[in-house]
Each structure stands twice: as structure tokens, then as C-alpha cells.
Specification:
single chain, alpha/beta, seven-stranded parallel β-sheet
Length: 261
Amino acid sequence: MEVLQMKDLFDLKGKVAVVAGASSGLGADAARAYAEYGAQVALLARRKERLDELAEEITAAGGTAFAAACDVTAEESVKNAVEQVLTHYGKIDILLNNAGVAIKGSVEDTSAEDWDKVMDINVKGMYLMCKYVIPGMRSRQYGKIVNVASVNAVMASKTLARHSYNASKAAVRGLTMGMAATYMKDNITINSVGPGLFESEMTANTLFKNEEYLESYRKTNPASRPGRQGELNGTILFLSSDASSYVTSQHILVDGGYTII
């Protein structure tokens, strides 16, 4: 059996990485990191124009990127996007499920429409992406799946109720564990990451404008600050590379210690 040298463990050359939810924020950052480490990147999201801009940026920096419009809540859209990636690159080695949405509100405040929207994007979208990517990984006996969950999968906030988000991210953990137990025999590792507060398109106009929440976060977080751009990439790269070949079903929190307080 081939044993990779330490210097090669994080090398993604020859790998194809799909990023669902790549149009902005943490997904776009991860796509850049994948390309920097040698992967051919497929960018998926609803806003194709954003993806095209990112693909041009990655290509200009010497990387390889392909963009395909995809609504992760619509099965036919997911199926078509995955087929486009397979036609373009011939395979999928890595899947980063990053598409997500957060809507504030308690169970009393949250409409059934908003509840369904959060569950559809955060959970159903992940299920659909895995449904159409995993068969190819199984046939090749290789795959790395990283699901973006949240610290809110394992904790809640007294100052800001986001009950649908809590439920959806806890479901991501359950789905991750179930799939990991099933597919490790096929050499497919499936893990999740739990980011703390990072500034992104989703949080810029919500959490970062809530001074009470920000002050509470800074006071209770050992790092005394939110995460900075790029600070999630190292964990994603680890879980997407052969450095984590014997790691599956894990939930790695990237939160500056927020969840230990």
C-alpha cells in the first residue's frame, strides 16, 4: 500500500473539488484555498454571475475553476449541476457543502414558510448534493465530504433566538454521522465543521449589526473576537485532503474557544 509522505498529505493536485454555496463568504474563500493547493474547482450556487467572477479570479491566479448554476433545494437542478461537473472534469473527489441560510426568530416568531426555507437549504440541499455525488465516489472508492454546520449545532444563544437554524445545523450533524458510518467502507470520509462567528454576506447585515450580540460574543469568547477571513480554510483543507484519511464523522469547531465557555 502506498504511504504518502507528510509533505504530500495536503497536496490536492489532480483532485476535483466541488463547492456548493460558492458565490460568497466562506464558500468562496474555501474555493480559493482549494485552487491554491492544486485542486480543480467546481463552483456551484444560484447566482451564476457571482460564480463566473470567482472563476475568473481563480483562473487569473493560476488555478482552474468551472462554474455551474445550482439551486441545492431543487433535485433536478442538483442532478444537472453534478452532471455538468462530471462532464467537465470527469470525476468528483471532494465535496464541500456550504450552502446555507439563517433566519432569526423563536418557534413562536418563525413562520412555517421560513422554517421550510431554512430546512430546505441547510438540510435538504446537503442531502441532494450527497445523493448525486456519492455514487461516483463509491465507484472510484475515494471521496472527501465536508459539511458546513455551525457552533449552533451544539449550543444556542440567549440573546439571539434562531431556532430553525439550531435545528437545521443539528440535523447536519446527524446526517454527517449517518453517512460517515455507511460510506467509510468505500473510502469516503464525511465530516463537518462548526464555524463560530465569521463575517460573511449572511452575517454582515445581521449578526455584525447586532451590537448586543457582538458584545456578548466578544466577552464570552476566549479569542475576544470573531473569526477572520481564511481562518476556516485550514480545517476544511485538512478534512478534504489525505491528511485526514482515517478521520470520519468528526465535528471540528472553529470558534476561538467560544463553545468551551
